[in-house]
Amino acid sequence: MNAANYLYLSALLFTIGAVGVVLRRNAIVVFMCVELMLNAANLSFVTFSRINGDLNGQVVAFFTMVVAACEVVVGLAIIVTIYRSRRSASVDDASLLKR
Amino acid sequence: MNELALQVGQTASPEAMLFWILAPLTLAAALGMLLVKKAVHSAILMAFVMVALAVFYIAQGAPFLGIVQIVVYTGAVMMLFLFILMLVGVDSSDSLTETIRGLRPIAITAALGFGGLMVSLLGRATLGRGAVGVEEANAGGNVQGIAQLLFSTFVWPFEVVSALLITAALGAMVLAHHQRIQERPTQRQLSISRFRGDSLATAAGLPAPGVFARHNAVDVPALLPDGTAAAASINASLKARGDVLDSSRFELGTVDTSIEEEK
């Protein structure tokens, strides 16, 4: 089993997540796509940890998970706040700075 | 590992089998996340991707991260997502029409370019040596190895991350705290506004749902004297969900009024 296959999978997952962030307009789905990108990065950290034979990559992936959890907590709170004032979770509707 | 090229078919280890079964499913679920319309379905597919990644972590000699992935992501984060979806409204499906003209082809082209670049880069990269594998690093136990690193080399980032967690929790509390700008109206004020409003049409309350003596469920709009359905008699969220029955079925004229076998 070639460990590089995990890297390919990680790259593809990251790409899919990036497309999702650009294309989807529901803020929650955009958020899930950001999570997907973070997870893809984690997968490559774990794979590189295996390729290099030390656990540093796994520790970094662990930190990424913590930061992702923080990001989800704050981001979802922002989404709820926006939804409360605008009655919509679409990222296109929150465009007050444009005008 | 000397050349990082895709080696399909020549691997037959259990891990390879796991990978070639689970990786396409993961990719399909991730793609489905993009394509499905409802946010809830996206969340379910996302949970599948998370669990699959946890399996990959465990297969790669990172059992601690695999368990943490399941506990934190599929447990806490996806729960939070579903909870917020419930608050914001399950029916908040995206309209998949594009608002910025030409965004979709540009995004897809850029993604194909980026993905192709990444894959071809990985395919051409060489390491000069094979993959070492974490068996040696995991010799004293994976959790023990990670703890060793976490509390020696990474102890400062670890402390900083704890500060980050506390800040995030505080931030979420501040953002979610809802301060009332006006005072809550009292019963008396509500009553006055009902009778001094523009019209007295709803002064006695909104019409009750149900067709008189035929069907009294809340999802059946009341019938007005002229036979039309009274829209105001149905809860707005039922209407938004589309869970409203057609009340004309229970109209008296269309009902069989022969009553002999009822007795």
TrEMBL record, chain A:
Protein's cellular compartments: Membrane
Chain segments annotated as transmembrane: 6-23, 28-48, 60-83
One GO process term, biological-process aspect: ATP synthesis coupled electron transport
GO MF, one example: oxidoreductase activity, acting on NAD(P)H
One Pfam family here: Oxidored_q2
InterPro entries hit by this protein: NADH_UbQ_OxRdtase_chain4L/K, NUOK/Mnh_C1-like
Keywords linked to the UniProt accession: Membrane, NAD, Translocase, Transmembrane, Transmembrane helix, Transport
UniProt membrane topology term: Multi-pass membrane protein
One of the record's GO cellular component terms: NADH dehydrogenase complex
Main subcellular location: membrane
UniProt cross-references to HAMAP family, sorted A to Z: NDH1_NuoK
Family note: Belongs to the complex I subunit 4L family.
Protein name per the record: Unannotated protein
TrEMBL record, chain B:
Membrane-spanning intervals of the chain: 17-36, 43-60, 66-90, 102-122, 154-176
InterPro entries: NADH_UbQ/plastoQ_OxRdtase_su6, Nuo/plastoQ_OxRdtase_6_NuoJ
Assigned keywords, A-Z: Membrane, Transmembrane, Transmembrane helix
Gene3D superfamilies to which the protein is assigned, alphabetical: NADH-ubiquinone/plastoquinone oxidoreductase chain 6, subunit NuoJ (1.20.120.1200)
Any one Gene Ontology molecular-function term assigned to this protein's record: NADH dehydrogenase (ubiquinone) activity
The name this protein goes by in its record: Unannotated protein
Organism: freshwater metagenome
